Amino acid sequence: MAKTIFHPAEKRGHANHGWLDAHHSFSFAGWYDPSKIHFGALRVLNDDIVAGGEGFGKHPHDNMEIITIVLDGTLEHKDSMGHARQIVPGEVQVMSAGKGVTHSEYNPDPRKKVNLLQTWIFPKEKGVQPQYDQKTFLVEDRQNQLQTLVSPIDNSDAGLKIHQDAWIYRTALEPGHGVTSVLHTANHGAYIFVIDGSIKVGEQELNKRDAIGISEAESFEIKAIQKSDVIIFEVPMTF
Q: Is the domain defined by 139-236 classed in CATH 2.40.160.20?
């Protein structure tokens, strides 16, 4: 029997710092909910809006797989590995912090906010050499189908590579259409987050920014009620 946990959008943590308006799916910074520490290896899912000309100053990370997906606007990234790149909608960035890296994230447009999803996934191996990658993913390649954004570094599947047995998918569904995903092992679960639109997973209806976690299942199906943009994190539940 599959286990599910529903996380409605309005129950997320929220912090508005003026320059940063952030919603947290899991405990983060000053917001703590003992029932929402992580979902398996998925530790952080932040839905951030950064004001024009503002950003996160230089700060360190280690032993974490960091995935950034820009939904609107432009984000400028600089790191201690020598990368200086801009990330725009349709692009995904991965950074394996490994044994240690510093970076900054900044909105270079003074007139427009940037909205991004930043995800942290626990790695399966600590102390790896830090690495960085970035790629554009076309909307038409996820139309009514699963598009692989991220996959394990030792796996031949499509997508940017991370140091964990985890996959990230995105799908753009038209009303009445659906997708089915088969979990890779009995130890894997899926965290489904609705970027926009309205879907059903089993009997549970989810709307914009709602999420549902599924574990102890072989597969699951997502059906669109309205035109929808959905991201799926398949992660080990124990690691």
A: no
What angle (nearest 5°) sits at the alpha carbon of residue 182, between those of residues 180 and 185?
165
* pLDDT at residue number 160: 98
Distance from the Cα of residue 139 to its chain's centroid: 17
Q: Are 162 and 81 in contact (CB under 8 A)?
A: no
CATH class belonging to 13-136: mainly beta
Does the predicted TM-score (pTM) go above 0.90?
A: yes
- Please indicate whether the domains covering 13-136 and 139-236 agree at the CATH topology level: yes
| Best CA proximity match to 118, nearest among 58, 43, 208, 13 | 43
- Averaged pLDDT score across all residues of the chain: 98
What's phi and psi for 9, nearest 5 deg? -55, -40
Condensed to tens digits (0 to 9), the pLDDT of residues 98-151 reads 999 999 999 999 999 999 999 999 999 999 999 999 999 999 999 999 999 999
Q: What are the backbone angles phi and psi of residue 142, rounded to the nearest 5°?
A: -120, 10
Supply the pLDDT for residue 127: 97
Query: What's the N-to-C CA distance of the chain in angstroms?
Result: 22
Residue 160 CB coordination number (10 Å): 20
Segment 84-105, tens digit of pLDDT: 999 999 999 999 999 999 999 9
How many of the other CB atoms lie within 10 Å of CB of 45?
Answer: 25
Query: Which string of DSSP letters, residue by residue, matches 100-148?
Result: -EEEEEE---TTS-EEEEEEEE--SSSSPPPEEEEEE--GGGGBTS-EE
Cβ(195)–Cβ(229) below 8 Å? yes
